[in-house]
User: What shape does this take?
Amino acid sequence: MKEINLTVNGKKHRIKIDENMRLIDLLREKLNLLGTKEGCGEGECGACSIIMDGEVVTSCLVMAFQAESADIITIEGLEKEDGTLHPIQQAFLDEGATQCGFCTPGMILSAKALLDKNPRPTRVEIKEGISGNLCRCTGYNKIVDAIEKAAILLEKGGN
Amino acid sequence: MKIKEVIKAKDLNEALLSLDKYRDKSKLIAGGTDIVIDLKHKKVLPEVLIDISDVEELSQIKIEESYVEIGAAVTFTKIEKSKKLDNRLKGLKEASRLVGSPQIRNLGTIGGNICNVSPAADTVPPLLALDSIAVVMSVEGKREVPLQELFLDKGKIDLKENELLHSIKFSKLQKNQALGFSKLGLRKALAISRIATSVCIEIDEDNRCKEIRIGSGALGKYGLREKSTEDFIRDKILDENFIEESARFLKSEIEKRLEGRSSKEFKSEAVMGTFKKAIREAIQLIKA
Ligand SMILES: Cc1cc2nc3c(=O)[nH]c(=O)nc-3n(C[C@H](O)[C@H](O)[C@H](O)COP(=O)(O)OP(=O)(O)OC[C@H]3O[C@@H](n4cnc5c(N)ncnc54)[C@H](O)[C@@H]3O)c2cc1C
Ligand code: FES
Ligand code: FES
Assistant: This one.
């Protein structure tokens, strides 16, 4: 057992972890943040994507102890306290960009990491931004539409 | 996995001391994009993991008077976005930009790419074409070796139990020098067909090739220099006809190397394309 400090969705935590744990295990099992999904467990599908210190990463390839002092955002950290959805989440709903929903949390976090750095991406840039996230249902076009729409919503002054 | 101790090194000294203490019981972890998968499949069974991803001294790109030094823990994203690396080094930035996905590029490091000794490690061909020197370090001090000499076999790197890769060094490129890169097959699922070629050239005003180094990936057990093709090209005028002729020469070299392998036909054909793209890109960069 080892104790680590980290910030998740703005809240500071001090958590006991097993040395063999990955970051995805810490998020799901220790913090009960079940929005982070495990698909392949090998970095290929992106379902486990989270934002760590401003960059999107696959939490199945990070060991929990490596997240000491890290600032992490999971899908649960996006909506406001009153339950209002984040503009990217709203755009996904409006555009029908989510079907079974398994890829959606990771997809939205990739979109957020992209839009935080590049507020008006082209469709090509959006496709590149989500190239590490697989979706078996939607065929991607509606996802790209949603991210384009989210960029406009965010520019109009969402958060 | 049965890891008993994990150490997140705060500085280089702590990393070196931990490595010296735990030796073959330990494994270094940087981005984790190779080793976490190996841990999962029990291909490696360390008792101790030493994380070097937050060691400042290993995470820097330094431009010195005559050379460039890239820390082992520098990520693909950092190389791709670095303003310090000028456009004549496009081949190295391109190799980093074309790795896997944003998530993998944000985690994966150049040191991990080298030390994993995969035939398809994408930053290795450009680093070989740059004639890179590996800076290796332990508690006893630093040593420098040509990068190529670190590769012993597929998956086997020539580092002692208490040594780590500190950084990679190569000479700054001059006005008449540039580095090009081209790869085939973007996704990991296509790894078997992932051929990469990087070409570093120096040309004079008449388009004569003063110096050339070619690095290739996925055409051997690890990244290789194509020295006989380099000799074939050196001192010749690089017009389109000669580039075609060089590509055919390289093809015949690869055919010899892969004799008896099922991949021979495909790879020797494909390398002509990646080679021509890489050398044309390098020429264009010099002329730009
Ligand atoms: C989905 C996916 C896609 C990928 N796509 C590509 C691709 O397109 N091109 C490509 O080249 N690779 C690709 N990879 C492979 C991988 O991302 C790279 O090889 C990466 O550079 C590994 O770096 P890392 O920091 O994550 O290494 P780690 O996994 O942390 O370490 C790898 C190995 O190197 C050792 N090591 C790490 N740093 C040092 C050091 N400084 N000194 C000594 N030993 C060290 C570790 O002990 C371990 O044995 C992909 C991987 C995945 C999962
Ligand atoms: S579960 Fe992490 S990438 Fe698939
Ligand atoms: S909505 Fe089902 S995988 Fe994307």
Observations:
- The radius of gyration of chain B is 19 Å.
- Confidence is low (pLDDT under 50) at residues 188-192 of chain B.
- Residues 264-287 of chain B form the longest helix (24 residues).
